[in-house]
Design goal:
The structure is a single chain. By secondary structure, the chain is α+β, with helices and mostly antiparallel strands. 33% of the residues lie in helices and 21% in strands. The longest helix has 20 residues. The termini are far apart. Pfam families: Pkinase.
Length: 288
Amino acid sequence: MFSTLEYFTNADGSFNDCLVAGRFKKSELEVKAEKTGSGTFADVYRSEIRFPCVTKKMRAISGSDDLNSFVREGEMMRNLRHPNIVKMLGIHIHNNTYSYVLEFAQGVNLFDYLHKMQKSIAFTSQIKIHQQVCDAVAYIHSNRVMHRDLKPQALGLNIIYRDSSSSIKICDFGLATFIPEGLDEVDPMHVGTGGTPAYLAPEILKRKAVGFKADAYSYAVVMWETFTRRLPWADCNLEQECLLLLLMLLSLLPLLPLLPLLPLLPLLPPPSCFPPTPALGLMLAMFR
């Protein structure tokens, strides 16, 4: 079995600058019980491979689609080498459990720092970390990768108070999408519907063609949140709004056969002349 440690370590056991992500043997990786993070598709654990790292363990690989997603994220991450992007060190597969082995980014994510720990960041430090993320995102885009899920939870923050320095790393590429050379946008069916609603660009919510500008919108929301220390859309229940939209669409399903007749709607009598059917009344009102 190919082993990253056998080919890309220095005499002292540390990784050299020519590190290429490979596969770790079971005996080389120690996964600890301490969980440092959890998401929809994976859990993250403190680990050791002669030095600290983390293991992102996928919850379930149950079919070809899940396996393709695992391979896609790994392929994108192993080609990204930037000081403000968490490095992918390799993969670990054992007993049908698939994991990424990643660089250990000391600190907390930006969301926890701002809202759970309720700490503020000095203005000069804010400018510095935003410059770091913008540089990293520009680098990602230059490699034709759209992140699609930029949010405070995906940004690992490390502030060292003794010298007032701060650094930040982009940590999660679970929803990242590759945009082929020569294209600025891709069809919404190609990128799916994942993401965090409060940070999603309007074109994603509207299921329109989406491109690198969607990341710029998402990070603009993150910048606003960092400066104000307020949650975006805090005065709006996004889950409730999405549910109401879904219920409205479902109520219109029985009327789909009538869609070819939409041009004739302006010629119909007012809604008050029809039986009190909510879906029909709504549809007539929408096209008045």
